[in-house]
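mind reviewing both lines:
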Amino acid sequence: MKKGIRLILAATGAVLLASQVAGCSAMLPGGIGKCDITIDYPHGSTRKAGYIDGKGKMTCTIYKGHKITGASIETRLQKWSGKAWVTVGGTAATTKVGTVKNGVTYTGVSGFIVCQKGTFRTQSRGTASLDGAPGKSSEWATTNDDQNKGVKNPCEKPLKVVNVR
């Protein structure tokens, strides 16, 4: 029930590039590392009872001799308004990581909102610096990479994934 994005860290210009994948992807020529982002469906929070949250998680593979620093994971909850997805609270929550360790998973949590009826989705994106060169932010990725799906009443179990269109 998670969607994955792979950020490939390429040696050329030391820029963080984003590429959405559905499974494994080949390393870009000259690639020297990669970061995978997975996104959880919105759900009843286990940290704050009576609230909805969503999570974006980043795990990086760093090849010998290179360093990833200044990483951030932006995560936001969106609610279906009947016509469009609207970010709850208007902004994304940002989780910062100073120095990224090889193979460690870092979690960004959206803002918490009180449990309520409606259809919600989680979006997340990441950025980092490679060997001191700032990277570009990835595109917003959506749970299950489907713009037409969300979770109906996320505090209720089991989670119900529904089409909004």
